[in-house]
UniProtKB/TrEMBL annotation, chain A:
Residues 18-144 form the UspA domain. Gene3D superfamilies: 3.40.50.12370. CDD domains: USP-like. InterPro entries: UspA (IPR006016). This is Nucleotide-binding universal stress protein, UspA family.
UniProtKB/TrEMBL annotation, chain B:
InterPro entries: Arsenical_pump_ArsB, Cit_transptr-like_dom. Keywords: Arsenical resistance, Cell membrane, Membrane, Transmembrane, Transmembrane helix, Transport. The chain crosses the membrane at residues 81-99, 162-181, 202-224, 230-246, 258-278, 298-323, 378-400. GO terms for molecular function: arsenite transmembrane transporter activity. Residues 12-332 form the Citrate transporter-like domain. It is a multi-pass membrane protein. Belongs to the ArsB family. One of its GO terms (biological process) is response to arsenic-containing substance. This is Arsenite efflux membrane protein ArsB. It is found in: Cell membrane. It comes from Actinacidiphila glaucinigra. The keyword Transmembrane helix applies. One of its GO terms (cellular component) is plasma membrane.
Amino acid sequence: MIVTAWIAEGTWPACVDAVRVHAPEAADVVLLHVSGPDVPGLAHAAYAGLLGRGHPEHDPGTRLEDLGADSAARLLDSAARRLGRPCRREERSGRVEREVVAAVAGTDLLVMARDGDLARLGPRSLGPVARFVVDHAPCPVLLVWPAAAPDVATLPPPPPH
Amino acid sequence: MLAGAVIRPFGLPEAVLAVPAAAVAVGSGAIPLEHAREEAARLGPVIGFLAAVLVLARLCDEEGLFRAGGAWMARVAAGRPRRLLGAVFVLASAVTAVLSLDATVVLLTPVVFATAARLGVRPKPHVYACTHLSNTASLLLPVSNLTNLLAFAASGLSFTRFAGLMVLPWLVAIAVEYVVFRRWFRGDLAAAVPVPDGAGTPPLPVFALVTVVCTLAGFVVTPALGIDPAWAAAAGALVLAVRALMRRRMTVRAVAGAAGVPFLAFVLALGVVVRAVVDNGLADVLGRIVPGGTGLPALLGVAALAAVLANLINNLPAVLVLLPLTAPAGPGAVLAVLLGVNIGPNLTYAGSLATLLWRRIVHQHEHDVDLKEFTVLGLLTVPAALGLAVVALWGSLYVLGG
């Protein structure tokens, strides 16, 4: 059995903890991180907007790509330490939601965290990226709250008849 | 020529195309030699000022000022993403105002990204803040943006008067950005889990900080003594350059490289070419559209026109085109142009020259930015920030006198 935990900034400890609780002892655990191109892309665009500067070697977007790779490796190290059992690390880069879906083909369980509005129960607790993954995952999904789940009182009122 | 500057065939510097284009403009008689010389004489000191600020910023980076800024942001944030956003806003606004927008884009953005990564915070809102503030927060001082330096020379304002009139629009525009960012990115600003990276706290580069503060004081004092404030920037850059050379941190070549000589040549050539285009009919066409007077509706009209033009042809050519048309109406109109060309570029991806840039960027980095998010964020911030900043400028002109 393969259990994949999607490790994302800010929400990963809950995923690792869920693996520790729910994955069988014999399962192979994969820690997956995907670096999106959008943030370095912003820096590329800002530099391109500075007309006449030339010097592509000064383009901060390239620096952000390098820094992103470093921080992804550190993130997976931290996650592996917290997991405290043997695991495989997988680093990917590209459109995050599509890379996650592609990476979990053949997996028996995907563990992932909500990434939207965490203050109340409801559809907005999933951001666009996590929403895409939940909707398209080709495997069972364990969806966890990054911190304590909001109170049931935050449930929206039922629609009028 | 603008297309050439964007595409940069064979990776050539922009100046390689721009300088011959300027030579053709002069040679073909599109611009009289006298006008070209006049333009060069006007742009010369501006370019010198720009070079000094670029070198100053680069040397501050060498001294570790930006790394120390990263440590400061991490300390202020204390692991909370919303506080980090506040710290990024303060630092990016200050760096843009004092060391120019180039410093924020090239030197500060990587530090902000690394700080966010270390705090375990999603980096997107903070990197977005750098890119937006490099435009919006470049209103305050003549040195904050090349567009300001060009307008400063044309407006006849003193350094302190320029800053005095722009401080309120600057604060208002930044406040609008902050309010929109807090709401738009509220999901991304919710979570943080620190990731240890073993990096210690870098020491505060007191020497660089004192030099920058002295340079700022120099901007205020030099005009009173009848000296061009560009010399204050040059002195600041010189002090740090001598220190870096003595400590063998940098070579003379690297310091000279930081001045960006091809860029300076490009600006000069662009000025000559734009003057030729303006002389040959553009002045008549745009002269009919540019609102006259300095009432609030006129200022709003000028700023909106400048913002649209900045999105069509990039803000550097836009300011060169609009300055001669608005300068006769007084400093109020010139400053309204600046609000438009400085805040406006946040509206479109890479400040536009749309299709050309688009093709170049798509080839280089395939569909990497969420264009919808970029544009919606631009639509939420730019009209509100621009409109309120113009009202603030109008109020400042009223109180301080145009």
